[in-house]
Amino acid sequence: MELSEKTLKIYDLSLTIYPGMQCWPNDAGVELIQEQSLRSGDAYNLSRLACSSHIGTHIDAPYHFSEAGKGIDEVSLYDLIGEALVVEVPAADLITAAELRDVDMRTYKRILFKTRNSELLADRTFHEDYVALDYSAAQLLVENGVKVVGIDYLSIEAFTDAGHRVHKLLTENGVLILETLDLRAIEQGAYFMVALPLKLKGCDGAPTRVVLIEF
Predict the structure, then answer these.
(1) 40 domain-assigned
(2) Lower CB density within 10 Å: C or N end of the chain?
(3) Is the whole model's pTM more than 0.85, yes or no?
């Protein structure tokens, strides 16, 4: 069967990676250098990329905050491919357990949060007051067996949470965290998700191509 826009709709949630893109404070950013060039008379084009394993749209592996957790090359693709629910939380400054009271976590084990953060992604300036997940919400997700949780900014937890309690709770329970999702064009509802991280041996995370498919 030939797939096309007539048979299904594919939404790309991944940010383009390039030098000067928005990144976490004190991150070295992206270095993308063309080392071989057809224009310069070389036999081919070849570039070198240097960046954080958490640049752009990426997955936090359990190993990111749990010494005993799996590296990104060990995570299950069965967790990263399947039905996902996009939940819009337009007004909240912090996503608490109360905001999740109507979310069907019995059916959906991949939850992606769309917030006012989506409008910040076009701005290269980092905003410390982004919407994040609080501990009570993370606890509820873990209790309901959610496998993947995602959000539309650079971190799942508040910038001011120095103890990283949300990250630790999720990663220690094997929950995969998707960060910096571009959900600007996405309506709330159910989709089929495919999220494929770079297979970096023993690494704490990796840039990831994430798509939602609407049949």
Answers:
(1) no
(2) N
(3) yes
